[in-house]
């Protein structure tokens, strides 16, 4: 029997005085930045989503407190990648289905497949043609997230053709792009990359983002502190 294994020992209550539940083993999870709580969130099928983890790493996905997973990767979309993520995640998954290299009917089929697997939404990359957005919108009954990477993108046409949520990934220009979209389309839900600092997250929220996409540290970075403790004995 393990001694002193109470799941609530040494826990700190939240602002409402409620103790969180943590086990002896599952206490070292990746936590989303507290600045994200200032967002309004995006409500999808009755679930309010403020933070999204940009990852396809199952180990990280199983050990984080994000509201949803943003499962987009630079490779060709495949069921063998999306299915394990959707099945393993304990939170909703927005699943990438193409838009760059993968376009046309293949993107439509992948979007339909992602919905049948249980994805809460599908994500299309920036180069996706409007006709493909329209075809996917006629096929699936889950929100289509269209990525915007440039301030030159005609967001109005994206929305007109079926984009339900806009995802802004403009690097350092992300807050500026978000602000421009928010001014032109006051009611469109916007998720956006938060960057790596509290200041960049706050700037993106103040620009008008409803939800923040966070890129987690690499496994090597997450291991660094743990290995340092192991080396110290």
Output the keywords.
single chain; 233 residues; alpha/beta; 8-stranded parallel barrel; two-stranded antiparallel ribbon; 17% strand; globular
Question: Could you please describe the fold and organization of this structure?
Answer:
The chain is of the alpha/beta class and 233 residues long. The strands form 2 sheets. Strands 3-4-5-6-7-8-9-10 form an 8-stranded parallel barrel, surrounded by 5 helices. Strand 3, helix 1 and strand 4 form a beta-alpha-beta unit. The longest helix has 14 residues.
Topology:
Blueprint (H helix, E strand, L loop, with lengths): L41 E3 L2 E3 L1 E4 L3 H4 L6 E4 L7 H10 L4 E4 L7 H14 L3 E4 L5 H8 L6 E5 L6 H6 L4 E4 L5 H11 L5 E4 L4 H10 L3 E4 L4 H14 L1
Parallel strand pairs: 3-4, 3-10, 4-5, 5-6, 6-7, 7-8, 8-9, 9-10
Antiparallel strand pairs: 1-2
Helix pairs in contact: 2-3, 3-4, 6-7
Secondary structure class reads alpha/beta
Low-confidence stretches: 1-10
Radius of gyration using CA atoms only: 19 Å
Continuous helix count:
8
Beta percentage is: 15-25%
Mean pLDDT, as a whole number?
Answer: 89
Strand order of the largest sheet: 3-4-5-6-7-8-9-10
What sort of overall outline do the alpha carbons produce when their principal axes are compared? globular
- Main sheet attributes: strand count, strand direction, barrel closure: 8 strands, parallel, barrel
> How many angstroms does the end-to-end distance come to?
23 Å
- Give me the strand/helix succession: EEEHEHEHEHEHEHEHEH
Q: What level of helicity do the residues show?
A: 25-40%
Q: Could you give the count of β-strands? A: 10
């Amino acid at each position: 029997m393990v001694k002193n294994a109470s799941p609530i020992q040494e826990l700190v209550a939240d602002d409402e005085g409620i103790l969180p539940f943590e086990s002896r083993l599952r206490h070292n999870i990746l936590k989303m930045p507290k600045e994200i709580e200032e967002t309004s969130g995006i409500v999808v099928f009755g679930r309010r989503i403020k933070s999204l983890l940009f990852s396809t790493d199952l180990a990280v996905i199983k050990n984080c407190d994000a509201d949803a997973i943003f499962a987009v990767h630079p490779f060709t979309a495949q069921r063998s990648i999306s299915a394990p993520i959707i099945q393993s995640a304990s939170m909703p998954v927005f699943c990438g289905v193409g838009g760059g290299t993968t376009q046309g009917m293949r993107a439509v089929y992948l979007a339909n497949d992602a919905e049948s697997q249980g994805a809460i939404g599908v994500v299309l990359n920036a180069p996706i043609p409007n006709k493909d957005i329209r075809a996917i919108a006629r096929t699936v009954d889950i929100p289509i997230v269209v990525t915007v990477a440039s301030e030159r993108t005609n967001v109005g046409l994206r929305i007109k053709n079926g984009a339900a949520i806009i995802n802004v990934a403009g690097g350092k220009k992300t807050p500026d792009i978000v602000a421009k979209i928010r001014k032109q389309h006051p009611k469109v839900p916007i998720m956006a990359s938060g960057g790596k600092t509290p200041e960049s997250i706050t700037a993106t929220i103040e620009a008008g983002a409803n939800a923040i996409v966070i890129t987690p540290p690499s496994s090597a970075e997450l291991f660094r502190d743990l290995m340092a403790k192991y080396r110290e004995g």
